[in-house]
DNA sequence: CGTTTCCCTTA
DNA sequence: GTAAGGGAAACGC
């Protein structure tokens, strides 16, 4: 008899870390570890053919959660990082893979895989059979014995044979003792990986020495006083208990009650009809081929496993629809699954009276127990305002399953009549107590927190020292699915549930008399609040399977969701803005505006409102009778900058005066006057808010205040940037991608000339001009270069002769000639454009290089201008969007790498192709190369761009100087 | 008092 | 020609 026990968990982690990420082609389900795992299992079954052929065979997994060892020692495996996000959905699939190979998949609650392995091994040994443990985990070496139990390490290591059998000899090499004494050695030396303490100051070598001298741990501890070395003796005496605890942690349990008896592990032959459908559902083509050839069957005779193909990632806690009625269409697959879930959720009534108000510890404890049992919870916070850096927590809502939700009032006040805001309302828990109870749940890596716009709640909780993780966000899910539509909760509730949510304004009123949430009566507030949590949870159930069905899981999980905590931290940090500089500038601008106003009145011959386009139009084209005025679409005179520029060039001094006036008043009203009002009382810094789901292409947007449109072009404008300063003792670092969109275009459209130019570090606009107009790059006429630059930008924007002519102030026919010349020289660009036009019409969306979908409505419109607009936007979207994806990737990994490199630089702002950091003055130069490296390598390893990315970075006291 | 239009700022 | 946010005037209730 020969029993083979595979340490399944170590296979999974090895497969995950050793292989590049792999996702299922059809829907982006992460399957890299499943693929590696399947390969390893298959290879193992092949390698064990012949004289080693097993009679019994099983794969053993760790049961998720804690084991009895945690009760012995709460720090056991405490430092173990949680599994990566894209690995978690692969765990159930590896179990499925095991079963597909006709192998028993064994795991048992409360026990680690090692204990299960130990128990089976002992039973087989006692029967006189042979045991092979397939693992590279040294903790299992205690099970090795001379005749019966050996280990097999199949993990590939450079310079070593692919299969390494391990017996007592290898144990002696590793631990310096015979296998039966491994436990004693480990009890002494401990194990930092599993956080087994051992005795401080004793390593493997010393431990082996001591055990070999004294025989075993207890004898050693009893006779510790005989040890000659003082330090060692004292440490052992002092920490004897630690060694005893360590022994219990390390000692594997050979007598645990097994759910599956040894006899049930009898080896079954591989069966094509179970294995091939699994492999096909996973879309593992090469292993399918190899298996088919070994089994001598034709894989085409088998269909993919419908349930696995449809189900995609098994979602913890997902509504079970496996027994539900088939949808009308009868089509199986991820779409059908998503539709079933939608129907199931919609069938659950939404009753506001069912919601609970949690007012005491007992009620909250019940909810927490429910959350722990469920493994996920929808969370929503209610606060005193929309700015999460200024607002205070008023209450928390939770929902664990559709229709079941609660509201926990914590900060409601009474007596809205008295000017002090009244006292604390009755029937509320102490906020500190409630938060202390909820903190372990909100921070538990095993409990998923679901929200709608989670970044807001993360920001609130962060101010109460709670780090909410891990998360799912229905706003971001909807964004990944449907793009920058209205993805607000009210809209989603209506779209997916036909449900109209209670309106906040109905409770609180509108305008300047609107009440803040803390002023609301608890009972009506609770209905509104709990409804939000209920709806959020329902939306999560509905949207999650749709991500799989629509093939956007990877986008959501790698580009959208992980960015949320990063942005939450950036928002919380804020940026320092110098009030004095702005105030001085404001005065300066005001003075100049006043002078310009006087001039304007004189030139116009009357006083009028310079800020009124209507009045200005009347004066210019009415009273002064100027020619060439055009009307806007509402029939008013157009007075935009281009119109005034023309007039000024024709010698109308008033036009230039207005332009200058608009320049300074714009700077004053939008920047110098508005920015100081955003300085937060508490932090003395300005905290913008990033909208992660509002831009169609995947860019971020920034508001309240918008820090992505701070002036830079004009000299006056740049002065405003000098007010963005580093905190004392620090510097700001600005790092920006050079020409990222043109580089992305060169990659996507595969334009050799552009790629070569970037590779050689040429001036890309000069090179374009040289190619188009046949002039040398050296000593180029700036006007020629300017034309080429406009064309390059035009290409990115989905060029039209009309637009280019406008931009360059030339005739449309001439612009058309330029474009023709350009396309003749770079035909690949024209192909790219045609392809995007085709794609958007065929499928209703275009995609970035990382798979983000940018949907368009009315793609088959007959309206020529609307059609042209959609075409231009769909040419631009993959370029702008891919660049946006790249900087997102950089941001997601930036903080971890800076931390690892021990460089304390804080990421503060993002401006599409630029990141702003704040770092101690003496660390800034150290940070710059790291920041550049992360940004320039941000596409990898998912993609290898065919052009280099270039980042320029500089540190200085203020943003103007750093840029 | 809320919404739309016009204009202007950024990448 | 792409993608945003926002201030002030104008409009509409």
From TrEMBL:
<comment type="similarity">
    <text>Belongs to the DNA polymerase type-A family.</text>
</comment>
<dbReference type="InterPro" id="IPR036397">
    <property type="entry name" value="RNaseH_sf"/>
</dbReference>
<dbReference type="InterPro" id="IPR012337">
    <property type="entry name" value="RNaseH-like_sf"/>
</dbReference>
<dbReference type="InterPro" id="IPR043502">
    <property type="entry name" value="DNA/RNA_pol_sf"/>
</dbReference>
<dbReference type="InterPro" id="IPR020045">
    <property type="entry name" value="DNA_polI_H3TH"/>
</dbReference>
<dbReference type="InterPro" id="IPR019760">
    <property type="entry name" value="DNA-dir_DNA_pol_A_CS"/>
</dbReference>
<keyword id="KW-0234">DNA repair</keyword>
<dbReference type="GO" id="GO:0003887">
    <property type="term" value="F:DNA-directed DNA polymerase activity"/>
</dbReference>
<dbReference type="GO" id="GO:0006302">
    <property type="term" value="P:double-strand break repair"/>
</dbReference>
<comment type="function">
    <text>In addition to polymerase activity, this DNA polymerase exhibits 3'-5' and 5'-3' exonuclease activity.</text>
</comment>
<dbReference type="Pfam" id="PF01612">
    <property type="entry name" value="DNA_pol_A_exo1"/>
</dbReference>
<comment type="subunit">
    <text>Single-chain monomer with multiple functions.</text>
</comment>
<keyword id="KW-0808">Transferase</keyword>
<dbReference type="InterPro" id="IPR029060">
    <property type="entry name" value="PIN-like_dom_sf"/>
</dbReference>
<feature type="domain" description="5'-3' exonuclease">
    <location>
        <begin position="1"/>
        <end position="268"/>
    </location>
</feature>
<keyword id="KW-0378">Hydrolase</keyword>
<keyword id="KW-0540">Nuclease</keyword>
<dbReference type="InterPro" id="IPR002298">
    <property type="entry name" value="DNA_polymerase_A"/>
</dbReference>
<dbReference type="InterPro" id="IPR008918">
    <property type="entry name" value="HhH2"/>
</dbReference>
<dbReference type="InterPro" id="IPR002562">
    <property type="entry name" value="3'-5'_exonuclease_dom"/>
</dbReference>
<dbReference type="GO" id="GO:0003677">
    <property type="term" value="F:DNA binding"/>
</dbReference>
<feature type="domain" description="DNA-directed DNA polymerase family A palm">
    <location>
        <begin position="717"/>
        <end position="923"/>
    </location>
</feature>
<dbReference type="Pfam" id="PF01367">
    <property type="entry name" value="5_3_exonuc"/>
</dbReference>
<keyword id="KW-0239">DNA-directed DNA polymerase</keyword>
<dbReference type="GO" id="GO:0008409">
    <property type="term" value="F:5'-3' exonuclease activity"/>
</dbReference>
<feature type="domain" description="3'-5' exonuclease">
    <location>
        <begin position="355"/>
        <end position="548"/>
    </location>
</feature>
<keyword id="KW-0269">Exonuclease</keyword>
<dbReference type="InterPro" id="IPR002421">
    <property type="entry name" value="5-3_exonuclease"/>
</dbReference>
<keyword id="KW-0235">DNA replication</keyword>
<keyword id="KW-0238">DNA-binding</keyword>
<keyword id="KW-0548">Nucleotidyltransferase</keyword>
<protein>
    <recommendedName>
        <fullName>DNA polymerase I</fullName>
        <ecNumber>2.7.7.7</ecNumber>
    </recommendedName>
</protein>
<dbReference type="InterPro" id="IPR036279">
    <property type="entry name" value="5-3_exonuclease_C_sf"/>
</dbReference>
<dbReference type="InterPro" id="IPR001098">
    <property type="entry name" value="DNA-dir_DNA_pol_A_palm_dom"/>
</dbReference>
<dbReference type="Pfam" id="PF00476">
    <property type="entry name" value="DNA_pol_A"/>
</dbReference>
<dbReference type="GO" id="GO:0006261">
    <property type="term" value="P:DNA-templated DNA replication"/>
</dbReference>
<keyword id="KW-0227">DNA damage</keyword>
<dbReference type="InterPro" id="IPR018320">
    <property type="entry name" value="DNA_polymerase_1"/>
</dbReference>
<dbReference type="Pfam" id="PF02739">
    <property type="entry name" value="5_3_exonuc_N"/>
</dbReference>
<dbReference type="InterPro" id="IPR020046">
    <property type="entry name" value="5-3_exonucl_a-hlix_arch_N"/>
</dbReference>
<dbReference type="GO" id="GO:0008408">
    <property type="term" value="F:3'-5' exonuclease activity"/>
</dbReference>
């Amino acid at each position: 008899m020969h029993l083979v026990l595979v340490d399944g968990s170590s296979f999974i982690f090895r497969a995950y870390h050793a292989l590049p990420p792999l996702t299922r082609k059809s829907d982006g389900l992460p399957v890299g570890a499943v693929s590696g795992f399947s390969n390893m299992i298959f290879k193992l079954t092949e390698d064990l053919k012949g004289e080693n052929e097993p009679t019994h065979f099983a794969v053993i997994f760790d049961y998720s959660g804690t084991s009895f060892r945690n009760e012995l020692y709460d720090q056991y495996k405490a430092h173990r990082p949680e599994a990566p996000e894209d690995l978690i959905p692969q765990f159930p699939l590896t179990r499925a893979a095991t079963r597909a190979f006709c192998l028993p998949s064994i795991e048992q609650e409360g026990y680690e895989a090692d204990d299960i392995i130990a128990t089976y091994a002992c039973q087989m040994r006692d029967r006189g059979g042979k045991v092979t443990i397939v693992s590279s985990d040294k903790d299992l070496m205690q099970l090795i014995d001379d005749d019966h139990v050996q280990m097999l390490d199949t993990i590939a290591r450079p310079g070593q044979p692919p299969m390494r059998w391990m017996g007592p000899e290898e144990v002696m090499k590793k631990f310096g003792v015979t296998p039966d004494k491994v436990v004693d050695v480990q009890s002494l030396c401990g194990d930092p990986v599993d956080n087994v303490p051992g005795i401080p100051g004793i390593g493997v070598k010393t431990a082996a020495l001591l055990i070999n001298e004294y025989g075993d741990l207890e004898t050693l501890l009893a006779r510790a006083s005989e040890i000659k070395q003082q330090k060692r003796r004292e440490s052992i005496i002092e920490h004897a208990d630690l060694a005893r605890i360590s022994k219990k942690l390390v000692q594997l349990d050979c007598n645990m009650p097994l759910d599956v008896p040894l006899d049930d592990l009898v080896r079954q032959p591989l069966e094509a009809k179970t294995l091939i459908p699994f492999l096909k559902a996973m879309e593992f083509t090469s292993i399918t081929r190899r298996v088919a050839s070994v089994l001598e069957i034709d894989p085409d005779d088998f269909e993919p496993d419908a349930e696995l193909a449809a189900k995609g990632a098994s979602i913890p806690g997902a509504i079970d629809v496996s027994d539900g009625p088939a949808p009308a269409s009868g089509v199986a697959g991820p779409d059908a699954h998503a539709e079933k879930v939608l129907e199931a959720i919609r069938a659950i009534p939404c009753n506001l009276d069912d919601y609970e108000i949690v007012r005491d510890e007992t009620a909250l404890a019940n909810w927490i127990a429910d959350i722990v049992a469920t493994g996920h919870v929808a969370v929503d916070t209610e606060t005193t305002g929309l700015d999460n850096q200024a607002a205070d927590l008023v209450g928390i809502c939770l929902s664990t399953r559709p229709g079941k939700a609660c509201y926990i009032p914590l900060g409601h006040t009474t007596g809205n009549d008295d000017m002090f805001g009244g006292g604390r309302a009755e029937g509320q828990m102490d906020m500190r107590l409630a938060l202390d109870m909820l903190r372990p749940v909100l921070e538990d890596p095993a409990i998923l927190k679901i929200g709608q716009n989670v970044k807001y709640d993360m920001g609130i909780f962060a101010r109460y020292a709670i780090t909410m993780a891990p998360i799912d966000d229905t706003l971001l899910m909807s964004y990944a699915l449907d793009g920058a539509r209205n993805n607000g909760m009210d809209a989603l509730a209506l779209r997916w549930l036909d449900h109209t949510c209670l309106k906040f304004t109905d409770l609180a009123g509108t305008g300047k008399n609107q009440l803040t949430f803390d002023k609301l009566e608890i009972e009506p507030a609770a209905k509104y609040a709990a409804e939000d949590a209920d709806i959020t949870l329902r939306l999560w159930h509905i949207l999650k399977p749709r991500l799989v069905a629509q093939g956007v899981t990877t986008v959501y999980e790698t580009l959208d969701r992980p960015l949320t905590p990063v942005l939450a931290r950036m928002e919380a940090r804020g940026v320092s803005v110098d009030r004095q500089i702005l105030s001085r500038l404001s005065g300066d601008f005001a003075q100049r505006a006043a002078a310009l106003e006087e001039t304007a009145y004189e030139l116009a011959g009357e006083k009028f409102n310079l800020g009124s386009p209507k009045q200005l139009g009347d004066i210019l084209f009415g009273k002064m009778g100027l020619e060439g005025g055009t009307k806007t679409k509402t029939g008013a005179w157009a007075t935009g900058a281009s119109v005034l520029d023309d007039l000024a060039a024709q010698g109308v001094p008033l036009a230039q005066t207005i332009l200058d006036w608009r320049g300074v008043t714009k700077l004053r009203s939008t920047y110098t006057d508005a920015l100081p009002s955003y300085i937060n009382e508490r932090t003395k810094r300005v905290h913008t808010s990033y909208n992660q789901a509002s831009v169609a292409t995947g860019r971020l947007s920034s508001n309240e205040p918008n820090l992505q449109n701070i002036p830079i072009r004009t000299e006056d404008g740049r002065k405003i940037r000098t007010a963005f300063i580093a905190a004392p003792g620090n510097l700001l670092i600005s790092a920006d991608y050079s020409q990222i969109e043109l580089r992305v275009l060169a990659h996507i459209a595969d334009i050799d000339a552009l790629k070569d130019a970037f590779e050689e570090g040429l001036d890309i606009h000069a090179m374009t001009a040289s190619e188009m107009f046949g002039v040398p790059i050296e000593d180029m006429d700036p006007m020629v270069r300017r034309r080429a630059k406009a064309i390059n930008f035009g290409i990115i924007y989905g060029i039209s002769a009309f637009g280019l002519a406008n931009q360059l102030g030339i005739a449309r026919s001439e612009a058309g000639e330029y474009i023709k010349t350009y396309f003749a020289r770079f035909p690949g660009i024209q192909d790219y454009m045609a392809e995007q036009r085709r794609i958007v019409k065929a499928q209703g969306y275009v995609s970035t290089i990382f798979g983000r979908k940018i949907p368009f409505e009315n793609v088959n419109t007959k309206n020529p201008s609307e059609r042209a607009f959609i075409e231009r936007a769909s040419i631009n979207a993959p370029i702008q969007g891919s660049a946006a994806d790249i900087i997102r990737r950089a941001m997601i990994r930036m903080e971890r790498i800076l931390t690892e490199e021990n460089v304390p630089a804080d990421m503060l702002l993002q401006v599409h192709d630029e990141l702003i950091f704040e770092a101690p003055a003496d660390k800034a130069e150290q940070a710059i190369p790291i920041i550049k490296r992360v940004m320039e390598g941000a596409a990898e390893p998912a993609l290898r761009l065919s052009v280099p990315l270039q980042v320029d970075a500089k540190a200085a006291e203020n943003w103007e100087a750093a840029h």
